[in-house]
Every structure is written in structure tokens, then in C-alpha cells.
Amino acid sequence: MQYRCPKCQSQKVIPVAQAGNATRPDVPKSLMVLVFSIFLLLLLIISNIVMWIFSKGAGTNLQIATAIVFVISAISGVLFWKDLPNFKLSMQAFMQSQKAWKCRECNNQWQI
Ligand SMILES: [Zn+2]
């Protein structure tokens, strides 16, 4: 099955939300934890840098928090890596159950 626009052959196609289509990809919890912890880690790293520039180095609490969040992101990264095969399968099932598509290039809509 190819996901291309039948009109302009663009690959920039997006699924159109359908009423009554309950099939959704199964997003693993580890992915949500991973995204959240990476976001938190970036925030902590930035505050570490800011503290380091504007005062005499980051506080011990901030350093401990950064280390803890780093460990959490590493663990959730490994968990997500294990979940990845199942996530791919559920994404494929979602793509196949999706009947209505829209092209972002030419706004063409079509049904499979
Ligand atoms: Zn198109």
C-alpha cells in the first residue's frame, strides 16, 4: 500500500479524522514517559547552564535532579526501544484501517 497523493504524487499526505473509526495507534506509555523526561532534562540542562553563567555554578539539588531525570530518560529510552516493534505494528494497523486521506500539497482528499 502506498501513501501518495493520486493527483500530484506527493508523499505529504495526512489521515483525515473519520467519525466511527475507533482504530487508533497504541502509543506505548514508555514513549510518553520518554518525551516528558527528555523535555524535563532539556529544561534542567538549560537551568544548569544559566546558573553556571550567572552565579557560581549550579546548586547541588539542581545537579542531583538533572542526574535523576537523566537516569529516568535513559530507562524509558530502553523501555521504548523494547516497545518499538509492537508500536510499529499498531501504527501499520492504523495506517491500513485509515480510509480517508488528504494531501498537504494540493489539498486533494480521497478514499482508499
Ligand atoms: Zn496532492
TrEMBL record:
<feature type="transmembrane region" description="Helical">
    <location>
        <begin position="31"/>
        <end position="54"/>
    </location>
</feature>
<protein>
    <recommendedName>
        <fullName>Zinc ribbon domain-containing protein</fullName>
    </recommendedName>
</protein>
<keyword id="KW-1133">Transmembrane helix</keyword>
<keyword id="KW-0472">Membrane</keyword>
<keyword id="KW-0812">Transmembrane</keyword>
<feature type="transmembrane region" description="Helical">
    <location>
        <begin position="60"/>
        <end position="81"/>
    </location>
</feature>
